[in-house]
Amino acid sequence: MSTVKSKKLQVGTDATATNNFTIYQPATPDGTLRVGVGNADSPTEVGRFNSNGYVATNAPAFSAYLSSNQSISTGTWTKIQYDTKEFDSDSDYDNTTNYRYTPSVAGYYQVNAGGYIINGTGFIGTAIYKNGSFAKRGSSAAPSSATSVQSINSAIIYMNGTTDYLEVYVYHSYGSARSVSGDNSLTYFQAFLAKAV
Description:
The protein contains no helices and 19 strands. It is elongated, with a radius of gyration of 22 Å. Strands 7, 8, 10, 13, 16, 18 and 19 form a seven-stranded antiparallel β-sheet that branches. It has a six-stranded antiparallel β-sheet with strand order 1-2-3-4-5-6, with no helix packed on it. It folds into two domains: 2-56, no CATH class; 61-196, Jelly Rolls, CATH 2.60.120. It has strands spanning 2-4, 8-11, 21-24, 33-37, 44-50, 53-56, 61-65, 70-72, 78-79, 84-88, 93-94, 100-101, 107-118, 123-130, 133-141, 148-159, 166-172, 178-180, 188-196. Strand 11 (93-94) and strand 12 (100-101) form a beta hairpin. The chain is mostly beta strands.
């Protein structure tokens, strides 16, 4: 059963509003058709159609990088302090205190991380941590002729949208402290929602 109310088409008449959907135009038409959860009187937008097709409303994404070199001790996993945001659609990334991403929408996230050690010729590892523990790890080993080495990590990780958080750690085995490069093209941390649940 459907209900039509002034530019709004409600699909469903369940007593629980969240069991209904509403298709509508905004109060001032702007070339989009909105899809909302709830009754026609007050739907919560979850997506919209425009001339390019469907665009999800709740699709968080962020990208951050390390803006200056960070010293990393040898033989220990150390959190990279990605301190500069390129973008953060939902303000879910903390770039000043904990350097962690706590997405506010539940689902499966594509996560990318890079760490670049300067003046190292051995092993480097990057690890994506979830809630303080290893989730996924990547590593690289530089030949003796190299002066620097990068480790890149990419994974799809489920996040509950409330308490789950992600961080990136780096490890190296060069015998003494080395620096992670503060170059935004080399040392970065990114994620976006690939599939909501």
